[in-house]
Write the structure tokens for this entry.
Amino acid sequence: MGGRAGGEAVIPAATVVGGASVTGVDWLLIVVVAVLLFASAGLAMAETSLIRTSKAKAKALEDEGRRGSHRLVHLVEHPENFLNTVILLLLVCQLAIATIVGILAERWFGPWGVAAALVFEIIVIFILAEALPKNWAVHNPERSALAVAPVVSAIVAFPPLRFLAGGLISVANVLVGPRGRSTGVSESELLALADVAVEDDVIEREERALIHSIIEFGDTVVREVMVPRPDMRTVEADLTVSQALGVALGAGYSRLPAFDGNVDDVVGIAYAKDLIRAERAGRGGDTVHDHVRPAHFVPETKRVANLMREMQDRKFHLAIVVDEFGGTAGLVTLEDLIEELVGEIVDEYDVEESPVEPLGGDEYSVSARLALDELNDLIDADLPTGSWDTVGGLLINLLGHVPGEGESAEADGVRLVAERVTGNRVGRVRVVPLLPAPSPPGEVRSTAGRE
């Protein structure tokens, strides 16, 4: 029942679409379109995921031992080796899909089928072969990059494809000129990455500040971190050991520069432990000159990163900073360099006043020695820079003379007021943001009156 007598085979009727029958060749072309659509989606995902994967991320995945990470590292280190091939294959797949669909639609539906095929291709190719795989790669960059890395590596290793893609790119280079050199990651990009990492809760704000400090550390010179000459605590080389030991204990320092005549003639560094040892040995009447150690001298323009390495290699903690004329400009310690990286280090013997004191209403009282870059970061300003490095130096430059207490100057919408002046030195400066619009660029106004 239900079958034909004599065992005759049942041949299904041919499928008819739009008045035309679908042949076996048509079904084969439909399968080819499906395969090309799948390949196009994979290539689109590969293009997005590999481009978005940085060298650092790839190496981190390799360190974790993730499968496929070794090939991924090789690909992202040389993107020019895979990008052209992937783009070429992606273009071939999409053009082939469009051509085959157009041929089938025209045969089945006639001229109107071509128009329908165009709309179908735009929607299907955009959704399935572009938007869907690329968005998935954006939201799952690690998984997609590791998944496509072995496949892309095999494709790139296929000589005919590599030579074809390279030849086409060579033709393009002849038309548009030679390729420019690829640039590495700049400092500003690294800083931006740290800022983004904080926003994404990948790192803490303290870690971001440390990254900023490390990057800026390479551009900092000794003049910016040294203890200036007026603030140096020194001893005369002709003092007795007992006298110098009293000075050292009173100052709370373990090392003091010893000078002969004036501070420009530093003859060595007096170590408190050497003075204590001499005192206990009954040589308290000896001169300090007999117990000093050699001093190290560095120019004020020396990079602090180089100085730190030198201090580590030669095992010294204090250096005398000299200016271009050979005079003593100040001194710098290993602690000063470390503080440039991690911030102020205060122990139980430090009695220094706070470099920044909030006064309310966006006003601050700052030390005149505060670095101008730190003030700019604090109040989000762009105060002018030049041969000066500190807030006090800027105020003196704006006025053209050493200010008296209460004297002020304005720049970039900020008023700087000399709060404390001792002799020719500015001690503290009050920073007052101005409510009105800032002065035009380059214009500086000063007020010689007192507040």
In short: The two ends are 114 Å apart (CA to CA).
